[in-house]
Design a protein that fits this description.
Helix content is 15%, strand content 29%. The chain contains two helices and six strands.
Length: 124
Amino acid sequence: MERNAGIPAGPPPGPSRADGSVDLLAFADWVSSDQKVRGTAEPEEERTYVAFILDHEEYGLPVGSVREVLRVGELTRVPQAPPHIRGVTNVRGSILPVVEIRTRIGLDPLDPGPAARVVVLEVG
């Protein structure tokens, strides 16, 4: 399927707030737009989201973009990575970067507790 000129292509939105943090809603819109381009988006009236709480606010990601939700496992630090990259992890033979969304959007980092989860997204 060919990309429409009006639908964003390329990497997800970068910092968009005055403090340099990224807007989670803009990111979710970008993921949703990419799903529409690939023809995998659900009809407008049947949108389903995976919801999560971050700093006492509820957010959602389009369920079609969520591959799985995992417990936080062993992370390997990446030298000279930006602060929001917590490291990489092995998920069934695939090495995946782990992004701490709190730091990415300008919140203070927290050590993952027993309830913490990693959301694996299929983007692009």
